[in-house]
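call fold target=RNA polymerase subunit sigma-24
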Amino acid sequence: MIKPGSFQEKILIGRLRMKDKDAFGELYDIYIDKIYRFVYFKVSSSAEAEDLTSQIFLKVWQLILDNKIKTGQSFQAFLYTLARNTVIDFYRHSRKEKGDISLEEAADISAAGEIEKEIDIKIEMERLSLKLKKLKSEYREALVLHYINELSIKEIAEILNKKRGAVRVLLHRAVNSLKEILK
């Protein structure tokens, strides 16, 4: 598997700039789970997260076709920035809040023998999501980017349009706030 930021990924991005559909498919495979997780922690609905994740990758492909991807920015930072902005747009245009995942949705994404395991994972994700919702949105976003999506301080700074030092302080405060909530 190709890792984000690796030399192989840079080659894929070069192919992507030449509108290579196979390269897009490979980058999609690398990032789909990470972007879905990022979006899911923001919307707390698997159906909405799937829809938004699809929209994000459609936007990426359209931006590629229109030659609007910057060459200096890391692809991962670009993708997370696009995901973040898509979620913001979703909340701007959405008046209603959607709640918890239904058992039908959990069963749809589970194999027959793994339903219980998937439900347990969903319950834990919901619990974590509820705890994270008690944090300020900027704290929650920083924690999800760093600890769940495993982005570096530099990448988070690029996504949030902040200095690295400010991101370190933000993460420190977010961790302390989460510790207080978990007590």
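return ok
Confidence is low (pLDDT under 50) at residues 96-113. The chain is about 75% helix and 0% strand.
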